[in-house]
Design a protein that fits this description.
This protein has a domain of 98 residues: Pectate Lyase C-like. The strands form 2 sheets. The chain has a 14-stranded mixed beta sheet. Helix 1 runs antiparallel to helix 2 and helix 2 packs across helix 7. It has 403 residues and is an alpha/beta fold. It is built from 8 helices and 28 strands.
């Protein structure tokens, strides 16, 4: 599809009010950028022709007519359909990334009245909060006292003790919001700087945020709300939400970090664990500058980015596994590392490998529709650290490069 026809389709979508004028402009700009990039493609990437040349001649004889198919789809990743998928995902992701991740010291309580309560909790105590229509903010305190602030609408302040239920001992703190109460409740909990055994939060129709707390296990479950965790320490972190994004940054959990979301982006940045597992539907997955023995990213309608990841502790190898249905997968590997990889782009997909990958072997399946690549980077001889990559998409572009 040439550029003029692609622009005509974009303008038609705009006329039918299926996209906004701003989105139309972004798509046109993206097409222009893609066209400009095509002039550098021969220097920067293995395209479909590079795949063909790297294979043995007898391999091509098995697939009569496949060259025509390959040429037809060689630049499929640059046509309008792929541009729309990736651009919409990028627009959504850019909006999400533009939001400040700093959890504010003070929540805006204008229009609310607050009640403060103090408790004494021992080290290794458990904390549990359950609430409907609740915003939950947990952070470290500079005091040895646990401070709870519950905020409700002024008309309901006098019956706040009916809205909340607290079960408390020095080893266990539990807070429940009455399911019958339908107004918004804001819960702020400041914990002493000590290690807790378990922190569990379950809420609907509101965000959950944790910062600078230590707990052996942190379990967060939300519906219709975002989840944010920053600078927390423990063994296990599990964050699950629907219709909301999840963002993690500078956390250290020895055993695992597991994230599940639907209809929202998920992101980890500078996090540390043996296993980092990020899964969502209808959203992008980004893993940046984090360290793990194994990274896993899975989404249905969204892009995946592995960017400059590192092995766990002093280990010499780590695994990155990425799988999406309608979206691209981008893998940026530290140029000081070696790499081994296997990727599948589906019958409508495309694989783009940097020229600094020295191919060891190339294979195609019997249909000639799915591309498999195995190889080792030229940097493998410079470093004992090796990144193993398994990436799959059914309808998108896989891009792998050393940076």
């Amino acid at each position: 599809m040439n550029k003029s026809k692609e622009i005509e389709m974009i303008l038609k979508l705009l006329e039918e009010k299926k996209i906004s004028s701003e989105e139309a402009k972004m798509l046109i700009d993206a097409l222009s950028e893609n066209k400009n990039e095509s002039n550098q493609e021969e220097d920067d990437y293995y395209d479909a022709k590079d795949f063909q040349d790297s294979m043995q001649e007898d391999s091509f004889e098995k697939f009569d007519g496949f060259a025509d198919f390959r040429n037809k789809y060689a630049n499929f990743g640059r046509d309008l359909k792929d541009a729309i998928f990736d651009r919409f995902a990028d627009i959504k992701s850019d909006v999400f990334d533009s939001l400040s991740f700093d959890i504010p010291n003070n929540i805006d309580l204008s229009g609310y009245e607050s009640k403060n309560m103090e408790f004494e909790l021992n080290a290794n105590a458990s904390v549990k909060i359950e609430g409907t229509n609740s915003t939950v903010n947990i952070r470290r305190s500079s005091s040895d006292i646990t401070l709870l602030t519950v905020s409700v609408k002024p008309k309901d302040y006098e019956r706040i003790n009916e809205i909340i239920e607290i079960q408390y001992t020095s080893d266990n703190f539990e807070l429940f919001i009455d399911d019958i109460y339908k107004e918004k409740v804001i819960i702020s909990l400041q914990l002493p700087d000590r290690v807790f055994s378990n922190i569990r939060v379950e809420t609907t129709n509101g965000p959950i945020s944790l910062m600078d707390v230590r707990s052996e296990q942190i379990i967060l479950e939300g519906t219709n709300g975002s989840v944010s965790v920053k600078r927390c320490i423990g063994k296990v972190l599990k964050a699950e939400t629907s219709n909301g994004s999840v963002r993690l940054e500078q956390n250290n959990f020895d055993d695992s970090i597991i994230v599940e979301s639907s209809n929202g982006s998920v992101q980890t940045n500078m996090d540390y664990s043996k296993l980092i597992d990020m899964e969502t539907t209808n959203g992008s997955v980004k893993l940046n500058n984090s360290s793990a023995r194994s990274f896993k990213a899975e989404t249905t309608n969204g892009t995946i980015l592995f960017d400059r990841l590192f092995p766990y502790q002093s280990e010499r190898k780590f695994l990155m596994t990425g799988e999406t249905t309608n979206g691209s997968v981008t893998v940026n590997i530290n140029r000081d590392f070696g790499a081994v990889f296997e990727c599948s782009a589906g019958r409508h997909g495309n694989i783009r490998l940097g020229r600094n990958f020295n191919m060891q072997s190339m294979q195609r399946n019997s249909l000639g529709r799915i591309s498999y690549a195995k190889g080792e980077s030229r940097y493998a001889y410079k470093s004992d650290i090796v990144a193993a990559v398994e990436s799959n998409t059914s309808n998108g572009t896989i891009t792998m490069e050393f940076v």
